[in-house]
Amino acid sequence: MAKLGSAPDLPPDSSGQPKPELSGSGYSKKLSGSGYDLPTLENLQWEGNDFGGFEAWHSPPGAVHRREKTYLGYLGKRQLAKWGREPPEQFRALVCEWVAQKRAEKGL
Q1: Residue 94: Cβ within 10 Å count
Q2: What is the pLDDT of residues 35-92, one digit of tens each?
């Protein structure tokens, strides 16, 4: 049982490891724990989910609440696995291209 004011106890996943703590502003830990080194891009926040993928959010400077951000899209674990077979430089380029395309679709 968690103490008042402390972080809640997270149930272990199927591997027996506790799930990473999620916050409204995305992961507070390095995303490479997912097996993928997602790039840190300006005005972009990655939010992981229980399905193994990540949501990309355009987050302008000073944006705190979700209503101040723009959802760009979902990068699923299958797409990440496909791109993950590429060399790290190519993986980064593919993710950056995907983000640029999603930003263009949203007019950002």
Answers
A1: 16
A2: 677 988 989 999 998 888 999 999 999 888 989 999 999 999 999 999 999 999 999 9
- The answer to whether position 27 is within a domain reads no
Do the beta carbons of residue 92 and residue 80 sit within 8 Å?
A: no
Does residue 58 lie within any of the structural domains? yes
Q: Taking the CA of residue 80 as centre, how many other CA atoms within 13 Å lie in the half-sphere pointing to its CB?
A: 18
What is the spatial order of strands in the sheet that 70-75 belongs to? 44-48, 54-58, 70-75
Give me the helix-helix angle, 77-84 and 88-106, nearest 10°: 140
Q: How far is the C-alpha of 95 from the C-alpha of 80, rounded, in Å?
A: 9
70 has which bridge partners? 58
Give the total number of structural domains in the chain. Answer: 1
Specify if 29 maps to a domain: no
* Model confidence, pTM: 0.65
